[in-house]
């Protein structure tokens, strides 16, 4: 991974009055560009192939300029061009997944957040070490031979739900598993899925205070998955199984959610524990992150995964959410990222929030 010292040397040559926000034209780029424009920052869209035409339909979210590459593997070739434009990369799920965590970790361009989190987030064993070390209640891990009820089998990395499957016994597991993929098996928790969108700032002081900085909870959502959300209209689980129709969990969209207000203390406690543990493990998880949870009928909250960057579920709230509006009207996660960058530059603390 590129060193903090190398990034500091690059940042030292930046014109802080002429910063640009750069990201790949995918995932959550519309709100990232929109938020940057609202904060008066230039925007650079990195696109694989020709610039997507749909940006023309959304002028407030269209990047000021494009840099075209032939493939994600070619992004390192434009690193110097990005540096010359005083660019700060905003990572998102598509950016990191398709470029590859290892290649992204070596990219010699300042990136918002702490790249050290990649090691802990992309490996499900280390992710569990992190979350359980924070005192988070997670679904238990199940050995393949000991499957005696519904379990969720997940491959490592951010794949938008692709390849996940439910198995009820060892035979079903063997029928569906890809032996070439690294996987984790978790007990299947019955409840409602909530994806909680947090933001950690190490430089702000007013708000929900942590040992260093503050924690914000900007929004929450639930994912729409194909075909799991509609499949049972066709029949009972046994009828579907007999017909060879199995549920899949590919994310196709998102819907907004608001939690019972009485659960907010517990929700903030979860975010606080995860951030504090990250500070001890690898120097902190900076900026947006998402706790992927299940709320049970006993009002327990079980965390089954963490995404340590902006997630697509925040796209619902380009003009603010019921929570972020109580911080500042019209506050999206994309806008909040640009605010943090501007404040850090103003305070001479940019090196604290980039890596």
Automatic annotation (TrEMBL):
Tell me which cofactor or cofactors this protein depends on.
Mn(2+); Mg(2+)
Q: Where is the ATP-grasp domain?
A: 101-332
* GO MF term set: ATP binding; ligase activity, forming carbon-nitrogen bonds; magnesium ion binding
The enzyme's E.C. designation: 6.3.4.23
Q: Which UniProt keywords apply?
A: ATP-binding, Ligase, Magnesium, Manganese, Metal-binding, Nucleotide-binding, Purine biosynthesis
State any GO BP term from the record.
'de novo' IMP biosynthetic process
Function noted in UniProt: Catalyzes the ATP- and formate-dependent formylation of 5-aminoimidazole-4-carboxamide-1-beta-d-ribofuranosyl 5'-monophosphate (AICAR) to 5-formaminoimidazole-4-carboxamide-1-beta-d-ribofuranosyl 5'-monophosphate (FAICAR) in the absence of folates.
Name by which UniProt lists this protein? 5-formaminoimidazole-4-carboxamide-1-(beta)-D-ribofuranosyl 5'-monophosphate synthetase
Gene of this entry? purP
